[in-house]
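Onboarding guide, step 5: your first structure request.
Type a short instruction followed by the sequence, for example:

Predict the 3D structure of this protein.
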Amino acid sequence: MASVSVVVPVFRCRDQVAATLESVARQRHRPLETLLVDDRGGDDSIEVAIAAAVDLGLPHRVVTMPRNEGVAAARNAGAVASRGELIWFLDSDDIAAPELVGALHEALVGHDAGFAVCRTTKFTATRIWTDEPDTGDGVRQGSRVALDILEGTIRGYACNKLVRRDLALAHPFPVGLAYEDLGTVLSWALHTPRVALVSRPLYRYRIHPSSLSAGFGEHSTDLLAQCDAVEETVSRSGLDCPDSLLRYRYREVVLPLANVALRAEHAGHRTALTRSALERARRMISWGDLLRLTRARPRLAAPAAVLWLSPRLYSAALRWR
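The system replies with structure tokens like these:
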């Protein structure tokens, strides 16, 4: 049985982290250890996390960052400190079904895969839903999963995956970027022959208004850096997938960047930064792209065309969505 380390970055999560750690303690396949990575949030989140781990009888260690460096650096530090053969990067405000580690472990080992992935369920205080397509159980080539990630049929989250420690260490998260998951998970897929799939939605992903993806700020333009990194990773790998990259660019970068900037303006926060982000998103659009998208993804082509031709009309439509 391969041993499992759970890496939990702890940053301003005092109200959620106890429930997160309880879901670790309830795993039917007991992890070897839980690494609580204190990312120096300036509150008592790490003390709450330690107390919860002690109360739950959860084997744990604390890794203290020298200063607040963000979730990517915290995950990397936890991975380096880990002792398990496999790593689960668990977010400190999410929870998981009790069978998650066992199901992913069985799939990964059974298929001799580089990592295993399950689907996710999203939840708020009043709603719960799953919006990912059913992958089916089994195994796929890593290059095929890379295409699935670019197409959005497999999400590029790190948190719903169990990954071999050597693969995680070889392809760490990019420090300093707000959107650190997708490029790293893409690298994992491109550097392993096989990826194991578990169709059950075993990871519970919390949606809340304070999340980075929900708000606009200087971090929002990190989507552009993510796009550059993804395209460079694909280019180095030799994977020939221009259409998948095109759809990724519009689905994950162009439209989301425009949307968060305009929603900030709708809330009364029109600034030079929102204007710049909107213009940078529009500059990524071209007539040739729109023609290619129209043939394959008209649901992407239509809003992109409106954004390109009439930002005011796009803004009005977004306001009433």
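Each response can be followed by summary notes, for example: The two ends are 49 Å apart (CA to CA).
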